[in-house]
Structure formats: structure tokens, C-alpha cells
Amino acid sequence: MSFERIVKIPKDRVAVLIGKKGKIKFEIENKCNVRINIDSESGDIIILSKAKPLFEIESLKAIEIVSAISKGFSPQRAYKLLEEEVILQIIDLKDFAGKSLNSMERIKGRIIGAKGKSRKTIEELSGAYISVYGHSVGIIGKFEEIKLAVNAITMIAKGSAHKSVYSFMQNARRKAKINKMLLWENEHH
Q1: Segment 38-75, tens digit of pLDDT
Q2: Which of 26, 39, 136, 155 would disulfide-bridge 44, Cβ 3.0–4.6 Å?
Q3: Is 125 within 8 Å of 76 (Cβ atoms)?
Q4: How far apart are CA 88 and CA 64, in angstroms?
Q5: What CA–CA distance (Å, rounded) separates 84 from 78?
Q6: What pLDDT score was predicted for residue 54?
Q7: In sequence order, what are the beta bridge partners of 49?
């Protein structure tokens, strides 16, 4: 019995998933022990596991990588999902913008910032990778990194000033560092 999942991706991301001369598709297949069939017309990506059912975590990682690429991440950033404890989180901006295209564009613009500055700052302060694509924001990172990035993106989407969002993030990082140090001291004394 083999594992099979269908992931739908936008047609403009199919070429990125395939890569030059099939390189990216081949890399994902090898790294995740799966076979990938691509229907370029529909954007359906069929992921078939070559592993025994007990080892299907690789197949799940393949689904996450394909999903990350479909949300605008480069394959190199999507491969971060192969690391332990690294996950993909998607925020649907329709939750903040409703059906208004103007609101959607304004929120995306605020998250990205002038010349990508806001997105880059959130990445630096959270440690997570961020991609704004379509009506969603994709985040790749460890749980704490994602939690911090989600809070920041939510605050920005709801209209908070960038400066206060960055202050919030810096304070959260400082608290996390202090908690780590205290935990380490307790374990070693």
C-alpha cells in the first residue's frame, strides 16, 4: 500500500517546482523518497510515497515542500522543512481583508514594506522565512519562530504601527533569551 496525495499549486509555480531540466523535482523525490507526477494544465501535483507506511514522514515533508513552493518560497528555503522541528504555517489574509481587494493589497504592502524592508525585518527578528504570495503569507521555521512571526504579521494586518510591532518582537526575543538562560542555569546547578 503506498501513500498518495494531491497538492494543487498555482500554474505559475509549476516551473519553479520542476526546476531547470527537472532538477528541483528530482531533488525533492530523492530527499523525500517519493515520486512526483505533475499535471501542468491543472496544477495538480501527485505525490506518491516509495517508502513503507512507517516511514511516511518523508512523504509528509514532500507535501510541505511542494506547498511551500506553491506559496512563493524558493526551493532552497522550502528545503529548510527537511530539518527537524521546522514546519510550514500559512496565514490567509482574507481573514483580515475580507473580500476587499484594496484591503488585501494594502495589508500585503504593509507586510512586505518598501523594498521588502518590513518582511526582511520580521524574518530577522523572528528567525523564520516569510513569503507573501496571492492572498496568503507562508512562514517556515521552528515553533517559537513561527509564533513570533505570526503575532507580528497579525499585528501588522490589523493596522499596528511597524515600530510597535518590531518593539514587541525585540521584547519577546529578549524574554525568550532570558528564559533560556534561566532554564540552562537551573539544569546546570
Answers
A1: 887 787 888 887 766 545 677 889 999 999 999 999 99
A2: 39
A3: no
A4: 7
A5: 13
A6: 47
A7: 34
pTM over 0.70: yes
pLDDT band at 130 (very low <50, low <70, confident <90, very high): very high
In a 3-state reduction of DSSP, which class is residue 134? coil
Provide the pLDDT for residue 52: 61
Among residues 63, 79, 95, which one ends one of the domains? Answer: 79
- Residue 153 CA to residue 95 CA, distance in Å, equals 12
94 and 46 share one domain: no
Tally of domains in the chain? 2
Which grid coordinates belong to 68?
A: 511551500
Residue 51 DSSP code: S
Per-residue pLDDT at 55: 56
Q: Are residues 118 and 165 in the same domain?
A: yes
Tell me the C-alpha distance between 102 and 145, whole Å.
Answer: 29
Query: What count of Cα atoms within 13 Å lies in the side-chain half-sphere of residue 149?
Result: 32
